[in-house]
Amino acid sequence: MKGKKSLVQRSAKKTSPLLPLIELSRRIGNDPVRYAILGEGNTSTRSGEDTFWVKASGTSLSTADRDSFTECHRSVLAPLWEADNLPDSEIDRLLLQSRVRSTAKKPSTEALFHAYLLSLPSIEWVAHTHPIAVNGILCSPRASDFAKYRSFPDDIVCCGDQSVLVPYTDPGVPLAKAIRQGVEDFQKELGSLPRVILLQNHGLIAIGGTAGAVEATTRMAEKSAGIFLGASSLGGPVFLPPDQVRRISGRPDELYRQKALKLA
Ligand SMILES: [Zn+2]
After folding, report:
1. Which pTM does this prediction carry?
2. In the predicted model, is pLDDT for residue 84 greater than 90?
């Protein structure tokens, strides 16, 4: 265990966001709620102006350690958001080229959407999971209701007034492009960034300024999904009217609560 301790100490000293990223990944990966099992899900955080740490391909959140993450250059991956019909070999080449250290593991293909999301102002952390209740709704005809409406105040505080809903698409470049389109449309319509991006027939993405924010958003989204499913079995949910949602998200005590929870 001596080697492991020195590794963590070295990580904390030289690459400060890596240790909290490992800890966040393990908390999410080992939670009994099962946000992700096996190799599901991935996490990331900015490490510099143009660099970020992201989970490597074939690793697990539950056993995350220093070797589970690869540091990448966002600028190498950015052209892929605009690309059309690139062969898989070229995408693989750019994923490998994006690594800060050429000996590091290949980043997950989902690094493409992490790179985009971490380019947004004030977004420093991303957590992508496949939670059971959230996916239960995302694999149903009621996904857009879950994205658009809110039924209780803490959901608004942690997950925002609405979520982005991205239609199902191929992983890799098509998914990164669809997420970008969804976020841009959301910004145009609501004038702010989302906290939650829902991928139809796939999973949940929480984005935010701190590790605590994306963890709280992930936990609350899954709780909200459980409440939605329960209320659906009783003829609901009864959603809060839009003016109530806006009032709650703008209330000083709720903004204070967001700060206290490190969500803002
Ligand atoms: Zn996924």
Report:
1. 0.90
2. no
